[in-house]
């Protein structure tokens, strides 16, 4: 399948991530997509797979738009997205979603499993969760190729695998390429993938730095260093040996380097040469140019990163002392909980909306956060309006009371405001300041023998867990979409779909909890010991001003709720 990207642009929450991408990937080729972290590889892969839409420009597959089943994507660490009871069911899910009729599925599943080296008779009935890491990765590739796509997109396919499993996965991908499948692989592992690639795309700061034959990257390492990447080890060694006249041709893989060295043994080092362990010369190109990432380019990146940090530090919300935000959160919560009438609740809604706008939280993120709550609150509101005796309205056998609707509406609004306060707080405060301020606030309780550090750690971890879970949920949704699931709106939340999201999510949450516990233990965490603060609290005049505003607003809300 031929892929053409024409003047493609993409942004996350108004942050430009891809700029003017133009590509033409030939059918039946294996293309490596590389670039430093954050250069936009994963984003570009999602666009090529049709899982995200470009903000501008077009992506054409075989000259037209992508059709269902045409493209499959295998995400980073895809085994975290397994959910079915057996290997057979895992593959059948994607085929069913893509509308493949039942009788044809078994043959496709058998063939896909055979292609990835997991014979159906041996693996079909096994639980995906009990396979080895390398087998799980193969299973995910089988699930992706079962529908016979024209293009297979993989993001970091060898990440987290041991060298042996990574080596055999590489063989598998090479085999798929030989069978005529078009592959685009995003990776940092150029040593492994460059030798088997036909084409290469090098990304730098959201733009295409190089697009062309993969062999050029091995022959001219400056292309990679110019994008902040290190050339493969075989290429660096080959270049150095060639400079010294010890090699006739530049190698295009580790194997060819070894073969060339076997034909032409290296001369013995001169007697007076110092032992390698004492003086290890740095590999350098002619003219002494260092192989480390090009300085100009990296300096550009780090200054860009500093600019972003400074810009975010300039945001007034980020500069506020976290104790002021805790005060606002606690007073706001108390004020909202004490409100019984509509007027003060509306006043508080206006105030919190104003604060959220001033915090400049991207609206897409806000919508994503509130959507599940809105559905739940709507349901609770309707539930509280239900009545069997003297209903004001009748919907068939169900009666609704006006007073119940009013009471339920006020409660729902109150909960929504509490959720909004928490959202505002966690979106504008990172973990360390949040914990330091809380610890400062509850420090007096230490005198009563209470372990306040345990409390503050628990609160900050809990608050930070919510955005983490939401992000994982979005990733799982995307992974289901990549298997052919395209449903939007309410159809996304059928009981089956919810189950397919909940199983891997629970496993991820348990895994995360386990990792956290191990990390805390391995750092020798002892709540009784003093520790160096991760964030230094510093109270400024502006904090006093904001504190006065908070006290005034709380007094105003309290007065209005008393007299309405
Ligand atoms: N969901 C998101 N919301 C906001 N920004 C995002 C999101 N996903 C990625 N980004 C940002 O977009 C930029 C490109 O990210 P992307 O994941 O495409 O990079 P990458 O080259 O694949 O990085 P890596 O090699 O670390 O996986 C980064 O600056 C990242 O912070």
From TrEMBL:
It is found in: Cell membrane; Membrane. Keywords: ATP-binding, Cell membrane, Membrane, Nucleotide-binding, Translocase, Transmembrane, Transmembrane helix, Transport. Its main location: membrane. It comes from the Bacteria. It is a peripheral membrane protein; Multi-pass membrane protein. Residues 3-230 form the ABC transporter domain. The keyword Ribonucleoprotein does not apply. The chain crosses the membrane at residues 326-357, 369-388, 408-426, 493-513, 545-563. InterPro entries: AAA+_ATPase, ABC/ECF_trnsptr_transmembrane, ABC_transporter-like_ATP-bd, ABC_transporter-like_CS, ABC_transpr_CbiO/EcfA_su, ECF_ABC_transporter_ATP-bd, P-loop_NTPase. Belongs to the ABC transporter superfamily. This is ABC transporter domain-containing protein.
């Amino acid at each position: 399948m031929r892929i053409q990207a024409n003047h493609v642009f993409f942004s996350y929450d108004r942050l430009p991530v891809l700029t003017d991408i133009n590509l033409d990937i030939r059918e039946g080729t294996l293309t490596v997509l590389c670039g430093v972290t954050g250069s936009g590889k994963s984003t570009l892969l999602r666009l090529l797979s049709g899982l995200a839409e470009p903000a501008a420009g077009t992506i054409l597959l075989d000259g037209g738009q992508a059709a269902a089943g045409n493209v499959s994507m295998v995400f980073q660490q895809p085994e975290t997205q397994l959910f079915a009871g057996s290997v057979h069911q895992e593959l059948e899910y994607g085929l069913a979603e893509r509308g493949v009729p039942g009788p044809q599925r078994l043959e496709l599943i058998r063939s896909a499993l055979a292609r990835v080296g997991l014979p159906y008779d041996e693996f079909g009935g096994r639980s995906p969760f009990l396979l080895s890491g390398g087998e799980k990765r193969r299973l995910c590739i089988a699930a992706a190729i079962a529908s016979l796509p024209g293009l297979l997109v993989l993001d970091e396919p060898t990440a987290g695998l041991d060298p042996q499993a990574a080596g055999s996965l590489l063989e598998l991908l090479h085999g798929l390429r030989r069978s005529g499948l078009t592959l685009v692989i995003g990776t940092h592992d150029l040593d492994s993938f460059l030798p088997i690639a036909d084409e290469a795309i090098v990304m730098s700061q959201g733009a295409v730095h190089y697009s062309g034959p993969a062999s050029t990257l091995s022959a001219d390492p400056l292309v990679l260093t110019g994008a902040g990447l290190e050339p493969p080890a075989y290429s660096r060694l080959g270049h150095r040996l060639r400079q010294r006249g010890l090699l006739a041709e530049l190698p295009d893989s580790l194997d060819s380097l070894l073969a060339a060295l076997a034909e032409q043994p290296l001369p013995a080092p001169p007697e007076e040469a110092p032992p390698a362990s004492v003086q290890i010369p740095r590999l350098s190109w002619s003219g002494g140019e260092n192989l480390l990432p090009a300085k100009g380019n990296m300096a550009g990146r780090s200054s860009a990163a500093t600019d972003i940090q400074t810009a975010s530090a300039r945001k007034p919300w980020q500069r506020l002392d976290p104790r002021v935000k805790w005060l606002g959160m606690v007073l706001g919560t108390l004020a909202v909980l004490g409100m019984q009438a509509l007027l003060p609740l509306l006043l508080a809604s206006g105030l919190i909306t104003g604060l959220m706008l001033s915090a400049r939280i991207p609206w897409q993120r806000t919508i994503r956060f509130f959507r599940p709550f809105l559905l739940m609150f709507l349901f609770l509101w309707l539930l509280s309006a239900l009545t069997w005796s003297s209903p004001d309205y009748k919907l068939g056998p169900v009666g609704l009371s006006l007073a119940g609707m009013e009471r339920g509406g006020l409660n729902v609004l109150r909960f929504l405001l509490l959720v909004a306060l928490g959202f505002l707080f966690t979106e504008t405060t990172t973990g360390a300041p949040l914990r330091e301020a809380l610890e400062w606030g509850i420090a007096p309780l230490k005198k009563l023998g209470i372990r306040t550090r345990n409390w503050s750690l628990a609160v900050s971890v809990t608050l930070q867990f919510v955005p983490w879970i939401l992000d994982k949920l979005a990733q799982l949704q995307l992974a289901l979409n990549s298997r052919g699931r395209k449903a939007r709106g309410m159809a996304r939340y059928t009981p089956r779909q919810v189950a397919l999201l909940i199983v891997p999510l629970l496993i991820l949450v348990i895994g995360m909890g386990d990792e956290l516990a191990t990390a805390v233990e391995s750092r020798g965490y002892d709540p009784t010991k003093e520790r160096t603060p991760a964030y230094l609290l510093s109270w400024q005049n502006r904090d006093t001003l904001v504190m006065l505003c908070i006290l005034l607003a709380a007094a105003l809300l309290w007065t209005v709720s008393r007299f309405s």
